[in-house]
Each structure stands twice: as structure tokens, then as C-alpha cells.
Amino acid sequence: MNIFKLASISLLASTLLLAENSLIDKAKTAGLQPIPADKAALMKLIDPNHTISEAKVALGKQLFFEPRLSKSSIISCNTCHNLGLGGVDGVPAAVGHHWTANPHHLNSPTVYNAVFFDKQFWDGRSPTLEDQAQGPMQANPEMAAPKALVEKRINSMPEYVKSFQNAYGKEVKINFETITATIGIFERTLVTPSRFDSFLNGDKEALNAAEKEGLSVFIDKGCTSCHKGIALGGTMQTFPAVGKYSYANVGDFKGDKNGKVKVPTLRNIVQTAPYFHNGAIWSLKEAVQEMGKTQLGIKISEADSDKIVTFLKALTGKKPEIGYPQLPTSTERTPKPDFK
Amino acid sequence: MNIFKLASISLLASTLLLAENSLIDKAKTAGLQPIPADKAALMKLIDPNHTISEAKVALGKQLFFEPRLSKSSIISCNTCHNLGLGGVDGVPAAVGHHWTANPHHLNSPTVYNAVFFDKQFWDGRSPTLEDQAQGPMQANPEMAAPKALVEKRINSMPEYVKSFQNAYGKEVKINFETITATIGIFERTLVTPSRFDSFLNGDKEALNAAEKEGLSVFIDKGCTSCHKGIALGGTMQTFPAVGKYSYANVGDFKGDKNGKVKVPTLRNIVQTAPYFHNGAIWSLKEAVQEMGKTQLGIKISEADSDKIVTFLKALTGKKPEIGYPQLPTSTERTPKPDFK
Known about the structure:
homodimer; Cytochrome Bc1 Complex, Chain D, domain 2; two-stranded antiparallel ribbon; 4 strands
């Protein structure tokens, strides 16, 4: 190899290196952020109030998988937020108690990385995971369990009482609020770092050339105007009046009082079809094009949509290992399943 | 301590030892058998045809937790045979597709230790776990999935196809039979050794005095005439015509063509309320007394029922550790959830 060839390869390599450095800069400038690789930095983000402990997470995991928190005793948090299916149920509108679909035709959002959302629920009415967990448990078309029933069920099982005392101290009041908050604490740990994070954290080989190109197109098209931050979503954004857009023509959901809607995370997006608040679109490419049209006012070409989808696939993250929990044994004091 | 006292303690110890040896003999003579402590002996029992492999068990576990095997895509084997709840749903009659209760009012039997049953289903119509798994998946009030739908769903996901090829070889035909058989293979591993097994296997301290007394009463009252073998159940036994007994006054189930009914296992029995084929009785003590009355024609006193229940609690076994499986991602070819 002559010196000229060597120099030109070296120049090419430097250019690529520069390009990749500048893609990371470009992504960060556009508001994209990685899940921190550093454990202390991550804990600071997911546990700002220092509520996480091993005992609370283990108990929260049991409660997350606990069907006796529903009126019928056969629906758990995991029924609609299935941790084996990207944290969702994979159906357009959640189906709960009495086989009732969500009356507003709302799609179950993933619990993975939900800790990074500014707000919870599609209309952002809940500030935290701990608060959010109170909703579906009581909602009639979901778990349909009144607070008092939830409290009676859990307090009727000595194994649960012991676990709560172990997690919070002997004086703990095992009420609806502590039960749901413990589920929220478990959910804080459901974080799924991906190759995208490795890339933003400096590993330039973590994404391949096509994924890098897709990331660049994703930014250039303006997707990051809503899909930003660590979650690539999770903030409230203006969502034009329903009826005007094809994907909104299902259900009666209109967002919060300002018509704003929570932007769904794009992490693990290939696992969480169907898409949008109403689960109206199954194809990720179609969803990308629909968003271009309705939210950005542009036509995203076939080629560019494919490139963006290629990038989105790199957002599939590594799930935490979840040992399926053994649940406490019911006692004669445990309120019976109620199918009414 | 004088020599006389020492001698009398030694005599007492020998008597107890004799008593315990003879209780083990008595139990074995009555037809009770332990889960073998020896792994090779256990494998011979649970895997007579050498179908178990690590790859098949891992795949079978995914399929056991796979809601897309149901028509709706929200009901899995684990919905009614919850591995965190003793392998059952804890409701009187199984509730499935369209929130439909089992039309014969049949209670979901546990999958734990079902490998030790002679027959599967309450009417014993199935000879193996592999065969049994075909039933609930297709049954309308359960998972309601036609064979062709199940096959299309699984074959639409490359990750599943790869796992089947990995487990069975490149030429595998991924059809309804192989899918359900793989679930059966996973279920063969759901064995829960208990302190009772340690006792029968020779560890005389594994049961305490009250449990030993309970075991003795259990045998003396004749419970082992049906609840015998490794499963303490699992054989077909005469079951007098329904209507005559209070616990049978629910549903229209009449057993097999000879009126015989599969005896449920007593392993993990405190975790599997409500009891009987129709889930009509919630209290274990009441169930013991009812069985005395209707099956043995005797009145089992309060004290003796308590003793038997004390023994039954020692049948709660150690569950295998189950990592909650990550399931393959649906593709655009995957048939959509169907709630009709």
C-alpha cells in the first residue's frame, strides 16, 4: 500500500469519526438523551426520592403480577402491561373486567421506561408512577377493584403483611396508597438500555451505518420535536382536534384540557404495536408516515420512512431479568373473587 | 443424669425412631410415594420418552406464557394455571374468552405435579400433558383459538421459528401438535418436592410431630384409598352420581362414561382453593370433612380434620424458579387479536 492510499484511508477514517461525533452532537442538540451507563447517575434519575430498596422492588413485583388486586382476581397489572411483550398487551384498546374494552378506545402504554415520562396516562393527569397505579386498579373497565377491596385482600394474607413490614417497617399502614406506590417503585426499575444508548454514550460502533443514517433522517424530519429526552417521548404535546386526522377517528379521547396528549416513548417501539393512543395503526412504517403528515405537515417518503424504521429498531432494549414471583397464599379471610 | 434416666431417654428415642420408621412404612404400604430425591430417578419418571431438552423446555415456557395462542391474544395457559398461585387461578370455574365461565362449572386443576397424574382433565379423557394442552387452547370458553390460527400466529414470528428449529431440528413442522406438545414438555418439569417427600425419602426430622400425627390420621381414615401415589391423586375413581352430595350441586359435570372422576392432587393444596371439580368449597377443613362424608362414609371429627389439614400443609412444595420469558415480536404477518 503506498503512502498516498494510506493517507486517504486515514483521512476517510477521520472523516467518519468526525461524522459520528457530529451525529452524537446532532442527536443531543436535538434533545435526545441516553439512559446513563453509570449506575449512580441512573439511580439519581429513576429514584430521586430514594424510595427504591430491594425489599420494596421485590414486593412491588409480586403486586404487579397479583391478579387478586382486581375485583375478579384474574386480572393483574401484567395482563395489560405484559413484561414479556414490551410492557403492553398488543391489542388496540385494553380489555378488562367483564371483557370490557377501554371506553375511550385507549391503548395500553408500555411500563418499560415509563419512569422517564414527565407525566403518566395519555392525558398526563398523573405526575408519577406511584400515583398512576391507582387508576387502572379502580377503573371499572380495567381491574374494577374498590380501594377497600384491595386493602382487605392484601391485609388478609400474612405473607404480604410480613413483606410490607419488612419493606417499610413494623408500623406500616398497608392501605391502597402504599400498595399502589409499591407497584410504582417496582416500575421505576423497568429500564431497557439499548444500542442507541451505547452509541450516545460514546460507543460509535453500537449503531451500524443504516441505523446512523436513520437516526439522522429522524432528526432532520423533525421527529425529535416531540420524541425527545431519554424516553424519546413522555412529554405533553399539542395534539390537533380529533376527527381531522385518520388515526384519531377511533374513540372519543381528546387529550387533556388543553388538547395536549402524552407523546408515547419510541423505546421498544417494534414490540408495542398497535400504535397511537387508540391503537389504530399496526404498521410502524405507516405510523411514521402518518405522524409526518398530521404532526409535522410533511410527506415522509417511502425511502425515508424505511430509514427511520431501521433506526427505531435499534431502540429495542435489554429487559431486566424478571423472576416470576411466587404469590402469597389466600386465607379464609381473603375476599373471594367477584365477577359481578 | 443417672444411668436410669439416660437409659429411659435412649429407650424413648428408639421407640420414636421405630415409630417414624413404621410411619414411613405405613405411608408406603398405604400407597403414598415420594418424589424421588435422585435426579436420574426423577427424570425417568417425568421423561419416560426422553423428550425433555433445555431448548424444548425454554420454548415450552415461552408458549405457556404466550397470550397470542388465544383468539383474543390476551389469555395464556398461565392465565388459568398461574405458576405464581400454585398453578391455578383461584376462582371456582375457569373464566376465558368473552369472560365466559366454564359451562360445566369446572375448576382449573393445577399444572404443578400434573406429570404424575395417570390421566389429564377431570374426566380423564387425555393420557398425557402433551395431548391435554390441545384442549383449552381450542375450547370456546377458554382460549378459543382454532388450530389454524395458532399455527399462523407462531409461524409468523421468525424468533419462534428459529427456536423450534433449534429445539427439534431444521425440518420441524411447526403445527398445532408440535406447539402444544412443547407446552406439555415444559409442564413435565413443574415438580414441587416438599418436606413430605424428604420424610418419605428417609429424613425423619422433615415433618414435625403434629404433621406426622396428621399423616397417620390421613392414612387411618382411608384418604389414601384415592389420594395415593406420588401425586396423592391423579387416578380415576368412582364418584357417586351428582346431586346426592352437596358439593356436587353445581354444574352438570358427571365424570367419564363410567361416572369416574380424576382425583385432584393434594400437593400444594393450601394454595389451590377453591376445592373439588366445581370449586364449590373454599375451606380445606370443610373439604376434608365433606370427603369423609361423601367418599368414605364417615364423619371426620373437628380434631381429626385439623390434624389432617396440618399434614396437608406439609405438602406445599418448592416451586421451580421460572424466569419470566421475553416473547418474540409480532410481525405484520401475525394474525391480529380477535375479540369476536
